[in-house]
Design brief:
By secondary structure, this protein is an alpha/beta fold. It has 12 helices and 8 strands.
Length: 281
C-alpha cells in the first residue's frame, strides 16, 4: 500500500487506507510484512515464530523498527523464552517474510485503457442476460432502443420439460447428452447433508427450454430401477460432456455415496456467483 494505493474489502466494499491498516494490524502498511513474519498467518500457511502472537509481534516491531533488527538484536536484549524463540526460529521468520512479500515485478502485459469503465454493449448484453435467465438485469439494462432485441412472442422457444419413464428413453437422452459440449445436472435427495443423502431423482438440461427428470427413489409414484440408472450414469460421467451445476460438489458427493465418480465435472455456478460478488450472501 502506498499513498496512491488503497484496498477494497470484498466483504463489505469498505476502503482501507494507511490509517485503517494501522488500526487493523497495529503497525503502518510498510511494517505489516515484518509483523506477519513474526506472528505468522495460519490462513496462508505462514509459520512465523511459534509463541509470538500479534501483540508481541507489534511490540517487537515498535521497539526494534524492522524484522532484521529484531532478529539481530532481539535475542540479546530480550529475556527468557522470547529471546530463545527469536534465536531458534530466525530462519523460519526470514522464510515467512519472503512468503508474505507480494512480488511486484511480474511480467504482466496490460493495456490500462482497456480497463476503463465503458458504457455497456446493450446489443450484446441483453440477449446474453436473457439466455442466462438474468431477467432482472436484462429488464434493467434494456432501453427503448434495445426493444428489437427481445424475442417476439411468435418466435419464443417452446419449453419442453419431461419425466423419463423408461430406460430406453433414458438411453436416448444420455446418448444425445454425450454429443453436447456441456449440460446442467442437479439431484433430488433425502438429506441436505451430502454424506447422508441418497438419490431420489436426477435432473438434466442441455439448453434453454428443455429438461428431463429421472425418478429413482420416490416413495410414491413410478421410479426407474436405481441400479440400471446408476450404471448408465457411470458411463456418462466418463464422457467428454462437461457437467455444470449449482453447488455441484454436493451432487458429486451424492453420486459418490452410490459408488460413482463424476470425472467430467466442469463448473460450479455457486462458486461463480461468489467470485462475481464475494460480499453477497
Amino acid at each position: 500500500m502506498r499513498d496512491n494505493v488503497k484496498i477494497l474489502h470484498p466483504k463489505d466494499f469498505s476502503i482501507m487506507d494507511a490509517a485503517a491498516v494501522k488500526e487493523k494490524f497495529g503497525v503502518p502498511p510498510e511494517k505489516v510484512i515484518d509483523t506477519l513474519a513474526l506472528m505468522g498467518d495460519s490462513s496462508d500457511n505462514i509459520p512465523g515464530i511459534p509463541g509470538v502472537g500479534p501483540k508481541t509481534a507489534v511490540g517487537l516491531i515498535e521497539e526494534f523498527g524492522d524484522l532484521d533488527t529484531v532478529l539481530r538484536e532481539g535475542p540479546a536484549k530480550k529475556k527468557g523464552k522470547l529471546a530463545e524463540l527469536l534465536a531458534t526460529y530466525k530462519d523460519q521468520a526470514l522464510l515467512s517474510q519472503r512468503l508474505v512479500t507480494i512480488e511486484l515485478h511480474c511480467p504482466i502485459e496490460l493495456n490500462l485503457d482497456e480497463l476503463k469503465l465503458q458504457k455497456p454493449n446493450v446489443d450484446a448484453l441483453v440477449p446474453l442476460y436473457r439466455r442466462l435467465e438474468f431477467r432482472g438485469l436484462a429488464d434493467k439494462l434494456a432501453a427503448p432502443q434495445a426493444e428489437h432485441l427481445f424475442t417476439p412472442e411468435s418466435e419464443k422457444q417452446v419449453s419442453a420439460y419431461k419425466t423419463i419413464r423408461d430406460l430406453h428413453e433414458l438411453d436416448s437422452i444420455l446418448k444425445d447428452m454425450e454429443t453436447r459440449h456441456e449440460i446442467a445436472l442437479d439431484t433430488e435427495t433425502t438429506s441436505a447433508n451430502a454424506i447422508d443423502a441418497s438419490l431420489v431423482g436426477i435432473s438434466l438440461s442441455s439448453g434453454d427450454g428443455n429438461g428431463w427428470y429421472i425418478p429413482v427413489g420416490h416413495i410414491e409414484g413410478n421410479n426407474l430401477p436405481m441400479a440400471d440408472v446408476l450404471k448408465r450414469f457411470a458411463q456418462f460421467f466418463n464422457s467428454n460432456t462437461k457437467i455444470i451445476g449449482q453447488n455441484i460438489k454436493y451432487d458429486r458427493q451424492v453420486f459418490r455415496n452410490h459408488g460413482l465418480h463424476m470425472d467430467n465435472l466442469a463448473f460450479d455456478t455457486m462458486i461463480g456467483a461468489y467470485l462475481l460478488d464475494p460480499g453477497k450472501r
